[in-house]
Amino acid sequence: MFPILLERLEELSYNLVYIDESAISPIAISAWSWQKKGELEPLVCDLRTRINVIAARIFKGKYAFMLKKGSKKSKHVIRFLELLDARMKELFTEEYCKNTIFVMDNARVHTSSSIKRYFRQSNFAALMLSAYSPDLNKAEYIFRLFKGRLRKACLHEKRLELVVAETILNL
Questions:
Q1: What is the pLDDT of residues 18-43, one digit of tens each?
Q2: For the chain, where are the E strands, in sequence order?
């Protein structure tokens, strides 16, 4: 049902903005970090560090990102949506923005009462995808590319925040 609905919305000239988030920690990527053969170099970053990356696929090839240290909460997603709204108003016509639908998975952070309230008060509509359907969220594709490049990044000389930011800038 959802793939057909998404295709039909695009045919009707709706702008579908896909949103997703992912947590990054050195523990998850350190095993894949580059290091000299035969040497185990200690990581400079704190292993307890956690960076949450929120991404939006605005349209083909155009993405927006927000980095947040620590845990993610609805208020951070709302802040990202507000910043995204302001940026879209700068870049696009009012008509284009009116025809925008935010597409997200049904993670708890997306279905909270504060997120629902935000969408009721904004000019945007939200479409929540069914559970376990990452193939329908086009923002997932950028995270696949992002995490692949992040695994190749060297964490031995830099802080995690810098490595994540550099990786995003080089996508």
A1: 998 888 776 655 444 445 556 555 55
A2: 15-24, 51-59, 62-69, 100-104, 125-128
Find residue 126's DSSP bridge partners: 102
Model confidence band, residue 81 (pLDDT cutoffs 50, 70, 90): very high
Angle between helix axes 160-169 and 139-152 (nearest 10 degrees) is: 120
Cβ contacts of 43 within 8 Å, gap of 6 or more: 26, 30, 33, 155, 156
CA dist., res. 167 & res. 86, Å (int): 24
pTM above 0.90, yes or no: no
The closest alpha carbon to 149, from 57, 38, 24, belongs to 24
Q: Token pair of 9, please?
A: 């919305």
- For 40, counting Cβ atoms within 10 Å of its Cβ (0-12 exposed, 13-18 middle, 19+ buried), the class is exposed
Give the N- to C-terminal CA distance of the chain in Å, as an integer: 32
What is the number of alpha carbons within 13 Å of residue 133 lying toward its C-beta?
Answer: 15
Number of alpha carbons in the 13 Å side-chain half-sphere of residue 164: 23
**112 contacts 74 by C-beta, under 8 angstroms:** yes
Q: Retrieve residue 37's tokens.
A: 């053969």
